[in-house]
Amino acid sequence: MNFPDNHNNKVEVKYESQSEILLKKIKHILLSVLRPFLIIATIILFLYGLFYIALFLIVIFSALYLYRKLKYLLR
């Protein structure tokens, strides 16, 4: 068999202490638990904001409707 020249193949070895491994596992567990709560909180805040925007638009259009109605009645 004819293999290409593999002089660029390298192996990286990383040494980690037990505390580093433990901190990585704790970080992974915390992120996996907190991520759904953060997503739900983001959705709730988004809906909360949309509610107030819709409420603002309803008030504005109601005021415009009442203004036009009064303007028509006072003619």
Structure commentary:
This protein is an all-alpha fold and 75 residues long. The chain contains 1 helix and no strands.
Sheet having the most strands? none
Mean pLDDT: 90
Q: Tell me, what's the shape? A: elongated
Classify the oligomer.
Answer: single chain
Give the end-to-end Cα distance, rounded to a whole number of Å. 99 Å
Please report the number of helical segments: 1
> Pairing-aware structural class of the strands and helices?
mainly alpha
Order of helices and strands: H
Number of strand elements: 0
Strand content: under 5%
Helix content: over 70%
Low-pLDDT regions: none
Gyration radius from CA atoms, angstroms: 31 Å
Question: What's the topology here?
Answer:
Elements: H1 18-73
Keywords:
elongated, 75% helix, mainly alpha, 75 residues
Could you give a quick summary of the protein structure above?
With 75 residues, the protein is mainly alpha-helical.
